[in-house]
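Good morning,

Both structures are done.
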Amino acid sequence: QVQLVESGGGLVQAGGSLRLSCAASGITFSTYGMGWFRQVPGKERTFVAAISASGGITYADSVKGRFTISRDNTQNTVYLQMNSLKPEDTAVYYCNRHPSPYDDWGQGTQVTVSS
């Protein structure tokens, strides 16, 4: 059974930084691409960043130059370093397989950026 556990969110002022972590279990982590997604109340979940099994990386235009995704296959963990945070980055952040996310999502981690 796949389990995805996100952590590292919090309240930060605009311009600040946070590092999110996502621990995965129940999958052969190193063979899959992983991604970060975010969702604000009343809106659909949107793509933030992804890292393939081979290390290829893509970002949403809105976070390019500010966010960095990385992975540690020895720890079955994917990270999202978020710098220069803006109020519009406020959302619940989730990780999942990318592409083809699993149906079951984790609980997410709340990121709130104050102006």
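Second structure follows.
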Amino acid sequence: QVQLVESGGGLVQAGGSLRLSCAASGSINAMGWYRQAPGKQRELVAGISSRGNTNYVNSVKGRFTVSRDNAKNTVYLQMNSLKPEDTAVYYCNAGGWYNSKFVSGNSWGQGTQVTVSS
């Protein structure tokens, strides 16, 4: 089972940017970024296939960009125009890609906190 380590979270003002990284211990297929805010269910934010196809939840379209560097076994989430409602713990997940959508797998990172102040 691949090990995943997220980094790049922090505190930022509304309108600011952060770039999250997810480093995998081995080769990866499709990857997804999830987030979980206090009292809410974990939600899929963005997914990327092994070929670079992507999809996003509507609330982040146009603001977040998921990318990958296969040579480094690393996936990124560039987050721009951040809003207070983006505050959450962000997790990466190694999964699959079916019917043009990301499907979660069993490997999760430990999470990284993103806090957006108003």
